[in-house]
Amino acid sequence: MKIFGVTGWKNNGKTGLMERLVSEIIARGFTVSTVKHAHHSFDVDQEGRDSFRHRAAGAQQVMLSSNNRWALMTELREAEELSLEELLKQLNPVDLVLIEGYKADRHPKIEAHRAEIGKDLIARSDDSIVAVASDIALEGIDVPVIDLNDTNALADFVLNHAELEKV
Predict the structure, then answer these.
(1) What pLDDT score does 41 carry?
(2) Domains and their CATH numbers in the chain
(3) What is the mean pLDDT of the chain?
């Protein structure tokens, strides 16, 4: 499996870029999965539901299954957060895994950048960022700058960098 990341400061368009990349790359015939890092406590379950009650009772893992999907929730219960490498081992094989967040990890990434947010570019000090997707022209950086709204060009870049081609 090839991996490629989308990173950037909050509100710079990471999630929208991820959505567009997933749709475009799948439309080109590739299989894609995603990993999203959250910096805070989150819950995918609903209080009062049976699965929530199972977790609240102390279950280490709770699996939900229906004729549409299945999901496995694992409670860390004071254990350390899994590394990205460990999480990737949990995924079924696909052509490409797109990773949102994980700024400190060393996989190749595109940085999403919006001028109105006013934050410095991470790319200036992080050589794992191989391109910047920006809504303005940028100068003085050593990586390609691609229009944040040009989904085709961004998908081309990701697929080329990941060395993925349809035969």
Answers:
(1) 67
(2) 2-42+80-161 (3.40.50.300)
(3) 92
